[in-house]
Design a protein that fits this description.
Helices cover 7% and strands 42% of the residues. It is mostly beta strands and 456 residues long. A hairpin with a 2-residue loop joins strand 29 (373-378) and strand 30 (381-387). The chain is elongated.
């Protein structure tokens, strides 16, 4: 069987003009393809793949990319990807969309893998990759003019699907035209000082400072979730003290075992793709009173939920729980990207990573939103990379809040309060900046005496 596969692969590779440069001369991967949606027009395209290693070397799937080429439909409303089932695990499979010009296709789906997908040994195959994608408004897809489409219901080698390892083409014939240009925005140089940005050093006098509202911020008041039932959001507990010679925004939330006063500050809903950053001081213990409450300290963005399972909802979270909560026994940091949810009965559609360690003290938090991926960094280290259907679709507000999980207060009537400090917040629109570039941009603002900028 292996000899038959190798012979078929070699013949098709010649016909396809697939290349295997000397760097990967022993690599040979065949892309087999079938579809479970063979109609000329469909609600969602369903390209299924199986990769066969007909070479002599083991190939880490993390280094492999599959590209399925198609022609976008009018109007171009964008596409969403999902993995229905995969032998190697859907959690180890990603899909992003990019554009190409000048050939028989103007778009492609690129399928990638994490390290958890393992290695493709000589003679082995990847097993099924049952994938699908659809238009964001669920209008029908015309597959008849799609370069990589073939209405076959059984697997066979197909040279209109390409396979790359580390940027080297191993299999298939691309549709031609110019080199691919991904939808990811990159920035190899310094931040563009003239680009749209928000920077706030939080140099305010109090929560009633008129400049707060003039600059688009709201200090929340009244009731409502999240938090302890009946809790109020207390503007007076948002203050702006000097810490180590620099003004900070301080959220100070209080409870006495039953009632609670929580704090939240949020900006206008106008932020979408780009780089978000803040320097935040988390705390593991209350400033006074008994410890142990399930408290949540945050930096996040959000699009409000207009109805249960609202597809336009979006949320990108850093959430630190110093005393645990949500089933966790001790301190934990969550990075969570949301598709949507409903409250009753509770249904959460999100993806998250976590670090089970203390983050007490100051930390630099950065997340990048671009090209279908949301990447989270803590102190310059990448800790999460999310995308696919969880990628946000609508403008969001920037938020900080400090609140208590319902049912998570320790059994004491003594008063206690927790604090979270925020040194600054920064957003660079449509720029993907590294944590080092963020730090440089903030230093430039401060060395120039700039306390606030907002031209987003």
């Amino acid at each position: 069987m292996r000899a038959l596969i190798a012979g078929t692969c070699a013949a098709l590779a010649v016909a396809a003009l697939a290349v295997a440069p000397s760097a990967f001369a022993a690599d040979a991967i065949t892309a087999q393809y079938r579809t479970s949606a063979s109609g000329a027009t469909v609600d969602q395209a369903e390209p299924w793949f199986k990769l066969v290693n007909s070479g002599t070397t083991s190939v880490p799937l993390q280094e492999v990319k599959i590209r399925y080429y198609f022609r976008s439909d009018t109007p171009d409303v964008g596409y969403r990807f999902a993995c229905s089932w995969a032998v190697r695990g859907c959690g180890n499979v990603s899909g992003t969309f990019s554009t190409i010009t000048g050939g028989a296709a103007d778009r492609y789906l690129e399928v990638g893998f994490t390290s958890g997908a393992g290695v493709l040994a000589p003679g082995a195959d990847s097993g099924d990759l049952q994938l699908r994608f659809w238009r964001t408004n669920w209008s029908r897809i015309n597959q008849a003019d799609d370069y990589s489409f073939r209405g076959e219901s059984t697997y066979s080698a197909w040279n209109r699907v390409t396979v790359y390892r580390g940027g080297t083409l191993l299999w298939g014939t691309p549709p031609g035209g110019s080199p691919p240009t991904t939808t990811t925005t990159t920035s190899s140089g310094p931040p563009n000082p003239a680009g749209p940005a928000l920077f706030d050093d939080f140099s305010y006098t109090s929560s009633s400072d008129s400049r707060i509202g003039q600059r688009g911020w709201t200090v929340r008041s009244g009731g409502g979730g999240p938090g302890v039932p009946g809790a109020t959001w207390d503007p007076s507990r948002v203050t702006f003290p000097s810490v180590d010679g620099s003004k900070v925004m301080r959220l100070d939330s209080w409870n006495n075992g039953s009632s609670a006063r929580q704090t939240e500050v949020y900006h206008q809903r106008k932020f979408f793709e780009g780089t978000y950053a803040s320097r935040v001081r988390f705390s593991d213990a209350p400033v006074f009173g008994p410890d142990g409450d399930h408290v949540v300290q945050t930096f996040f963005t959000i699009t409000p939920l207009s109805a249960p399972m609202d597809p336009s909802y979006g949320e990108i979270d850093f959430e630190y729980l110093p005393n645990g909560g949500w089933g966790e026994p001790a301190n934990i940091m969550f990075e969570t990207t949301w598709e949507t949810y409903q409250a009753e009965p509770w249904v959460a559609d999100n993806v998250h990573n976590e670090q089970r360690t203390s983050y007490s003290g100051w930390h630099d938090l950065v997340f990048q939103v671009s090209g279908g991926r949301v990447k989270y960094y803590i102190d310059g280290v990448l800790v999460a990379d999310h995308g696919d259907k969880y990628y946000p679709e609508t403008p969001m507000s920037i938020n900080f809040n400090l609140w208590f999980i319902a049912g998570g207060l320790v059994g004491s009537g003594a008063e206690r309060a927790y604090q979270q400090d925020v040194d600054y917040v920064y957003f660079a629109k449509d720029q993907v900046l590294s944590p080092a570039q963020v730090k440089s941009a903030v230093q430039n603002y401060r060395s120039s005496g700039v306390e606030h900028v907002d031209n987003v």
